[in-house]
């Protein structure tokens, strides 16, 4: 079954009580866009992950994203510029912010991530601790899930700190095989992340 307008309207009461909505492009882009708009109408924080990335992304996605979170290859496709270094990610963040995002996070695998907020003039690089990588499948999903957790449970925490912690959670996930099976439980993470 495809998620469409009718299903989103049915979900409106639940959505209005939500703290954070995460959307991506594995469902139809119009459905994701409608869900993000509904979230903003209800003062729900939004995280948009443009994955799988499409070159002709509707410009409205930028404006409904409190946090626009993508990896380096998605940032490259969307900006048309190389994104392999922290400096290039900083420039890509500026371009994505110009399109209307509230903030941008570009994940860079073992280099950590770059965070830039609309109200700031510079980006912040947040390195990730070195780990022994076994499987990177699902690392981005782990990062975004952790970010959503921190936004919902610690809404006054600075975005940079949320991203720093999400880096650590994603770092734990790449040390195990699989996608969902590699996502760590709270008991598997250091107490200072909570």
Task: Give an overview of the whole structure.
- This protein is of the alpha/beta class and 194 residues long.
- 41% of the residues lie in helices and 13% in strands.
- It is built from seven helices and six strands, in the order H-E-H-E-H-E-H-H-E-E-E-H-H.
- A six-stranded mixed sheet has the order 1-2-3-4-5-6, sandwiched between helices.
- A hairpin with a 5-residue loop joins strand 4 and strand 5.
- It starts with a helix and ends in a 21-residue tail after the last helix.
Q: Characteristics of this structure?
A:
194 residues, alpha/beta, six-stranded mixed sheet, globular
- Share in β-strands: 5-15%
Distance between the termini: 37 Å
Spans of at least 5 consecutive residues with low confidence: none
Q: Count of DSSP E strands?
A: 6
Q: What's the SSE pattern? A: HEHEHEHHEEEHH
> What value does the Rg take, in angstroms?
16 Å
Shape: globular
Largest sheet: 6 strands, mixed
- Give the strand line-up of the largest sheet: 1-2-3-4-5-6
Class inferred from helices and paired strands: alpha/beta
Helix count equals: 7
- Mean pLDDT reading: 93
State the share of residues found in helices, binned by percent. Answer: 40-55%
């Amino acid at each position: 079954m495809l998620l469409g307008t009718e299903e989103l309207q049915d979900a409106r009461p639940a959505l209005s009580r939500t703290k954070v909505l995460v959307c991506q492009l594995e469902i139809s882009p119009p459905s994701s866009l409608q869900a993000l708009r509904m979230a903003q109408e209800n003062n729900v924080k939004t995280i948009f992950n443009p994955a799988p990335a499409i070159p002709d992304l509707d410009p409205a996605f930028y404006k409904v994203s409190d946090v626009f979170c993508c990896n380096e290859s998605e940032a490259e496709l969307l900006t048309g510029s190389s994104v392999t270094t922290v400096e290039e990610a900083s420039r890509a963040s500026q371009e994505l912010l110009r399109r209307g995002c509230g903030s941008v996070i570009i994940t860079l695998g073992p280099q950590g991530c770059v965070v830039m907020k609309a109200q700031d003039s510079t980006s912040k690089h947040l390195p990730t601790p070195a780990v022994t990588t076994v499987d990177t499948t699902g690392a981005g999903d782990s990062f975004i899930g952790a970010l959503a957790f921190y936004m919902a449970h610690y809404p006054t925490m600075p975005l940079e700190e949320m991203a720093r912690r999400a880096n650590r959670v994603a770092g734990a996930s790449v040390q195990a095989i699989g996608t969902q099976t590699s996502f760590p439980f709270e008991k598997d993470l250091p107490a200072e992340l909570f």
